[in-house]
Amino acid sequence: MIAWCVVFAGVAVMVFCAVVAAAVPRVFDRLHLLTATTSFGAPLIGVGLMVSQGWTEASAMIAVTVFFTMLSAPVVSAATARLAAQHEGLVDESSPS
Questions:
Q1: pTM of the prediction?
Q2: Where are the domains of the chain?
Q3: In which region does residue 89 sit, left (phi positive, over 0), alpha (psi from -120 to 50) or beta (all else)?
Q4: Confidence of residue 11 (pLDDT cuts 50, 70, 90)
């Protein structure tokens, strides 16, 4: 029961961020919501599924997937923000990060 509550909490974070992302106009605001989904939503869903499955091969694959999502998401967010800032003229292309 606790496992499914954790999964539900993760799904709730994801749905909330998706609904709010549809409403905000700027890409930088949407990137903040992406951070919440990868920092809270995905790990909550992963932990809930691992607890409900017990320690199996499927749980190990879920753990690896969540780990790499959390590892790569900040890099993708930073690169997307940098490209958006260049596109809007806020940052010069030749300037360092």
A1: 0.80
A2: 1-88
A3: left
A4: very high
